[in-house]
Specification:
The protein is an alpha+beta fold and 234 residues long. The chain is built from seven helices and ten strands. The chain has helices spanning 5-18, 61-75, 85-102, 116-123, 125-142, 166-182, 209-225; strands at 20-27, 37-47, 50-59, 106-113, 148-153, 156-162, 184-187, 190-193, 196-202, 231-233. The strands form three sheets. The protein has a five-stranded mixed sheet, sandwiched between helices. A hairpin with a 2-residue loop joins strand 2 (37-47) and strand 3. Helix 5 crosses helix 6. The longest helix has 18 residues, at 85-102. The chain is elongated, with a radius of gyration of 26 Å.
């Protein structure tokens, strides 16, 4: 009834050799084909002068479900369902390492909602949350599957575009910026539009993620200074 027969063979060998297996999380296989998690403890003992093995199994399904939820919460921003800041940094570091190894381009962008405070002031923080969710959803649908989006903080997002030269990254983000500018959200009969300013850079060989994002942030503030609702590439 083990999902992995090789795992059972190893556990049995250990049980015979050491006489004990403690607190081992294993996947079983039910008659219906499901593979629930269980906590296994096993002992060998003598019963009527015969060596006997005793296994106890405790259902871990709910615990594993909670662990998976906690892992997801750590990896995703709960409001926007984009990557959390910490997970975004992990993903980008992995990609930068791969890109450096194969000399492939990677673009990083910082995106900030324009005049976001006015939305909260006029319609309340719940409306602000709705705006953030709407923008994040639009970016997720509009960017390519290989691109990664993380909520950097507040109304600011970071975007990684792997295998993408700077000019192509600018084109991708320009389409995203335009789609956001075309969006209209209804709050109590008031239709409002949202714009974003974007700064994008091509990472340099050996450059840290912090340094690359700092350059993208400078480009973002150039976009803000030039009138907002635009993409600046450096």
């Amino acid at each position: 009834f083990f999902a992995d027969e090789n795992e059972w063979a190893m556990l049995f060998e250990r049980l015979v050799k050491e006489g004990v297996v403690d607190a081992r999380a294993v996947r079983l296989r039910t008659r219906g084909g499901q593979t629930p998690w269980s906590l296994l403890n096993a002992r060998t003992l003598m019963l009527d002068d015969r060596p006997t093995g005793v296994l106890t199994l405790a259902d871990l399904t709910e615990q594993k479900r909670v662990e998976e939820r906690l892992r997801r919460l750590a990896a995703r921003d709960e409001l926007t369902d984009t990557l959390s800041r910490g997970r975004f940094f992990e993903v980008v570091r992995e990609e930068l390492s791969r890109a450096a190894r194969y000399s492939r381009p990677v673009a990083l962008a910082m995106l900030d909602l324009d005049h976001f405070k006015s939305v909260n002031d006029r319609f309340g923080h719940r409306a602000g949350d709705d705006v953030l969710r709407a923008i994040a959803g639009l970016m997720t649908r509009g960017l390519r599957t290989q691109d990664q989006i993380g909520r950097y903080g507040g109304e600011e997002f970071a975007v990684m575009l792997p295998e993408t030269p700077l000019d192509c990254a600018r084109d991708v983000l320009e389409r995203t910026r335009q789609a956001i500018a075309d969006l209209r959200l209804d709050f109590g009969g008031h239709k409002i539009g949202i714009t974003v300013s974007v700064g994008v850079v091509s990472t340099l060989k050996g450059e840290s993620i912090e340094a690359a994002l700092a350059r993208a942030d400078k480009a973002l503030y150039r976009a803000k200074g030039a009138g907002r609702n635009r993409v600046v590439a450096e």
